[in-house]
């Protein structure tokens, strides 16, 4: 029955939360489309998750079916859009912020800020105007 409700909710919201996941109080999802939370994920209290976040496993082999394969998210963590956090040994420490499009397979200490730094360069396609030459 839990799987039935999970599939129904997924079809209506685009959010896929496995019924086996453990979720604390005051869990907040904003713009939930594309969120995936795996079966053995543990989420603490006061956690915020934005669109496109995956809390998944590194491996899906049958011999690991009874182990924790998904990450643990401690209390007061914010995970911004597009972040992917994988692995059963991965723990996101309390009061941390995980930025958008971050890919994590390692644990993060409490009170951390993790972000992806990309260089975005914008230049005008138009050539520079001719230099003005003045003769006096």
Any descriptors?
single chain, 136 residues, mainly beta, UDP N-Acetylglucosamine Acyltransferase, domain 1, five-stranded parallel sheet, 1 helix, 14 strands
Q: Strand order across the biggest sheet?
A: 1-4-7-10-13
SS field, number of helical segments: 1
Q: Any low-confidence stretches, pLDDT <50, length ≥5? A: none
CATH topology, by name, is UDP N-Acetylglucosamine Acyltransferase, domain 1
What is the straight-line distance between the termini?
89 Å
Beta content: 15-25%
What is the CATH class designation?
A: Mainly Beta
Question: What is the general shape?
Answer: elongated
Rg estimate, integer Å? 21 Å
What's the layout of helices and strands?
Layout: H1 2-13, E1 16-17, E2 22-23, E3 28-30, E4 36-37, E5 42-43, E6 48-50, E7 54-56, E8 72-73, E9 78-79, E10 84-86, E11 91-92, E12 97-98, E13 103-104, E14 113-114
Parallel strand pairs: 1-4, 2-5, 3-6, 4-7, 5-8, 6-9, 7-10, 8-11, 9-12, 10-13, 12-14
Outline the structure in words.
The chain has a single domain (2-114), classed as 3 Solenoid (UDP N-Acetylglucosamine Acyltransferase, domain 1), CATH 2.160.10.10. The chain has one helix spanning 2-13, and strands spanning 16-17, 22-23, 28-30, 36-37, 42-43, 48-50, 54-56, 72-73, 78-79, 84-86, 91-92, 97-98, 103-104, 113-114. The chain is built from 1 helix and 14 strands. The strands form 3 sheets. It has a 5-stranded parallel beta sheet. It has a 5-stranded parallel beta sheet with strand order 3-6-9-12-14, with no helix packed on it. Strands 2-5-8-11 form a 4-stranded parallel beta sheet, with no helix packed on it. The longest helix is centred in the first third of the chain and has 12 residues, at 2-13. It starts with a helix and ends in a 22-residue tail after the last strand. With 136 residues, the chain is mainly beta.
């Amino acid at each position: 029955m839990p799987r039935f409700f999970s599939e129904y909710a997924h079809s209506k919201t685009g959010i896929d939360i496995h019924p086996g996941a453990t979720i604390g109080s005051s869990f907040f999802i904003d713009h939930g489309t594309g969120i995936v939370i795996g079966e053995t994920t543990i989420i603490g209290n006061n956690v915020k998750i934005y669109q496109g976040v995956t809390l998944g496993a590194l491996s899906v082999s049958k011999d690991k079916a009874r182990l924790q394969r998904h990450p643990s998210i401690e209390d007061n963590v914010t995970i911004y859009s597009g972040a992917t956090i994988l692995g059963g040994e991965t723990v996101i420490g309390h009061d941390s912020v995980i930025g958008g499009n971050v890919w994590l397979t390692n644990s993060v200490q409490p009170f951390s800020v993790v972000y992806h730094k990309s260089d975005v360069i914008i230049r005008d396609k138009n050539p520079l105007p001719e230099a003005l030459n003045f003769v006096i």
